[in-house]
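User: I'm new to structure prediction. If I give you an amino acid sequence, what do you actually give back? Let's try with this one:
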Amino acid sequence: MRASRRLPLIVACALFIENMDSTVLSTALPAIAHDYGVDPISLKLVLTSYLLSLAVFIPISGWVADRFGARMTFMSAIAVFLLGSVGCAASPSLEWMVFARFVQGMGGAMMVPVGRLVLLRTVEKSELVQALSWLTIPALVGPVAGPPLGGFITTYFDWRWIFLINLPMGALGIALAWRYIPALKEPVQPLDWRGFLLSGFGLAFAMFGFSSIGHLQIPAWASIAVLLTGTAALIAYAIHARRAEHPLLDLRLFRIPTYKAGVLGGSLFRIGIGAIPFLLPMMLQVGFGLSPLQSGGLTFVSAVGAMFMKTIAAWIIRQWGFRRVLVFNALVASASLAIFGLFRPPTPHLVVMTVLLVSGCVRSLQFTSLNAVSYADVEQPQISQASSLAAMMQQLSVSMGVAVAGLVLELCGWLRHVPTTDVHNFYLAFPLVALISGLSAIMMWQLPADAGAEMSGRARAGQEVAEPKAAQRPAM
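Assistant: Good question. You get back a string of structure tokens that encode the predicted 3D arrangement of the chain. For your 476 residues, that looks like this:
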């Protein structure tokens, strides 16, 4: 098997266990809340603690891979993730669960970014879109199997087993990485410890403060104080990055139009989409009264649609180019997310599954396009920095999505004087988060017409859009 196919399949082992873990957990959230005796909305801390850990440690993933080798870093990351999984299964309380999820995030912060780094350094740009598709097709087996499997385990057994089902695949990933992934050590500059502390401290405090607003056990003034402290640290990092010779996260990468659109525009899109794993299972189970198994039997079709789209994503991008696909598809994907708010308990399940299937297709196309166009104009010496910064922004935006979703539910409940999980609150939440995703189309519209032509294959086929330079829209 060619390396451009073999390496994505190996990296997909890590992506599989990460996706499997997140999808089965989303299905089990109401049951976990019941066992711990807490409000189901409090379980957003379980989701955000993992995403928070990713955002804190992803920035050093590129440096660690260059310093210790991609193979050793990748293998160690899977091992830490599995250790966190065992900790989640054994957690006696919500607080311990949050801590174990943070440990999981430390492993996840290295697994996928380092795997993507291997692909970026070993696969030609002209083959990268196809390689990314090979990466995500097997990984999507997790989201396909996760909801019904998580629902089955939660309904008929104990939810704690959902954290142990990814152990065999994780062990397989370690074995394959040892055999096939190259070490890929690179010369490294000294680690920017000041930048790491400022960015890590800032991200952790800002996201925890934002996600804890409205939490019954945390005073509002404390959440706001933590949020402001984190924001101040992030501003301090931005000032530090301008002065540092080798900053941990090189913000100058955002001067590259395709990178800026793919990462910043993609972050807006992911905020809305990141709310789905939290909002949808909660609405189906708490709002509509479905069992975890019934909920999982509906939501898995999104992953089926995503898997199908990966097989034709490269062809679609080659035919229409990155800008057209990113603009039009962002609007369609956001509209499909807003439609979730039109679901009602009597809505036929076939209708729900059809909407989820289409939504999975268009979201998958958008993610593939964003992941590819982000690196269209990044030079090889910048790949490590670019990969770390993009991965951090991705996870940060997903974490923001969960936090925004929880905050919207809490505000709706407060304004309407009803419980936070009242089903009508979900009807309002979906259109609001969809609006955030739709705003990403504005940034995509600023891309040049021939953005990423070499990567999409349009340059080879002579199909670039011949648009005068003076008429091209400037990058934001």
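You can read the tokens as a compact description of the fold. Here is one thing that stands out. DSSP finds 21 helices and no strands in the chain.
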